[in-house]
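Data availability excerpt. The first of two example chains:
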Amino acid sequence: MSTISPRVSDQPRTLFRTMIMPRWIALLVLALAIAAAFAFLGKWQLERAYRAAPTQESAPTETVRPLTDTVEPGSLLRTERVGQKVSVHGEFVPGDYLVISDRLNEGESGYWVAGHLVTDEGAALAVGLGWTPTRETADAVAERLNDAQRAEASVTGRVLSAQFPELDEDAPFEFTKMAPARFVNVWHEMDDVDVYEAYVVSDAAPEGLETISSPPPEQEVEINWLNIFYAIEWVVFAGFAVFLWFRIVRDAWERDIEERELAQADGTSNEKVN
């Protein structure tokens, strides 16, 4: 019958058996805790490195502000305020409703009807009121609005920079751009009136037109490369904590082997002397 011989006490431990000794397990737990702390700091630095774009609902442009707080008449619209939701009160001028051609609405070409709003402050503002795919509908709505009585109006919409006027020699009376600089040549009541170098796309369309699609401007993601560098450093530190534990255990294992070899060599020498 075969028997399992007991482990010789002088037999050196393997590296794995050394690793699972209680004191080295305890040291591993400490190393992992330190590595976890370093990893958390790396994650925190990485989150700070990326300033994510806000959602459509939380973007700064989606908070409705008074038009006068966003842009002044005669002044250019600042880049960071392009697409800002604004509110403005005034009166639309009958006879100044225009049809703007070649206007895309969610990829489909059509026509806008634009109005001339005299704000409560007395400035002239171009307003895109609504869209339609056919010229006949746009002309009919513009004619109906031009025949209506002057009345107060409150407009909420997105403010955009005025477009550069373009003149087609083959169609000199055709409007293809939201260009107040050109509109003033046909608008009424323009004596000594300040004009906004911007226009507003209304959130609500008059009867017969569709609401103009005007999505918020894209929000860019800002990257802080210094924070990314710090995040990489913390990850390296976390890996080093585990590596340091391994080196300590390996050194202890190698030292144990060396001590056993020396002890065996001394024992052999003593036997030869005796």
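And the second chain:
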Amino acid sequence: MDRRIDALDVLRGAAILGTLGTNIWIFTDPAGPLAFLSFGGDPGVVEAFLRFLSNGKFLGLLTLLFGVGLELQYRSAARRGVPWPGRYLWRAALLLVEGTLHFVLVFEFDVLMGYAITSMIVAYLIGRSDRVVTAWMAVAGTLLVTMVGLVTLALLAAPPGGAGAVAYPRSWLDQVRLRLDNLLVFRAELIFIVPLGIVLFLLGARLLRAGVFDERGARLRGRLMAVGLGVGVPLNLLTSFAGPAWFMVDRYLMAPLVALGLLALVTSIVLAMKGEPGVLRRGLTDVGRTALSCYVFQNLAAGLLCYGWGLGLATRFDELRPWWVPVAWGGICLMFMVASSLWLRRFGRGPLELAWQWAYQAPFRTRAAAGR
């Protein structure tokens, strides 16, 4: 039986809070996600650097961890002699429903829908031969690079200045209507997330098998840090300041490379720690244990803080941008570290995790009851 991997909870917590580090720039813009889609304007050196610290890296890290989780689910099914993918497809379907609700009700750039679709594909690849897995990774990676390259060429050829963002609706109902009316536009990122997810899901599974999360993986972690941090960070820094036309390369190619280095670095730090975990590690661990709840609710909290139907700080503090944005991010992170720790004192799972587990087990409980 696989023992619990302590580093995974810390990594999940860092990835969840790190994705907010990217999303917070959307929430705090008076034009909201519409500014993100305009590809226009110069954010300035300070904001560009602050965005560089999180953009795409923690999305890549979270995607790798989904692959690790899928591999662990596969191992569990194999140990129990349960058909695979079997019930896992029901798990993926529930994730798709949850992601759809998150998209419609909370946030335009939900990643759960993409992960659900990707997991349905990768579930049939886990456990296949190395040759088959490598072929799928190569095809998906080539498709991703090709699409990113074509979009980048189009952006380079476009007139400077971008399309210009229009006003984002103030009311929650109007925001919901905007998402539904522009479904294809807001969900276009799935075209990139799915092939990226196939590569990183399968890579995460391979890294788990190679022992990256235990002592025998020290050399592998060293190589990942050399490539991800030594090579990936300078390249990522370059694309971050190269202008909006290089956004796709920055987010979908360079940032996932850095994510590999982050995975290795955080794992090495956790393995080197002795004694009781400190406050920061406990906070990250608790967020990691309630990852789904924290991901959804931190976006809801950011919307409440920034949008017109809440406190409306995006408009009120626009002149303080970018300085107030990291403060908002830090405050939300601290709130969820504390909230997740308090919640876990009484419950074994996060609130959405509990609801999800109930929904997952419901049809099988009904079937078992009918058979009695």
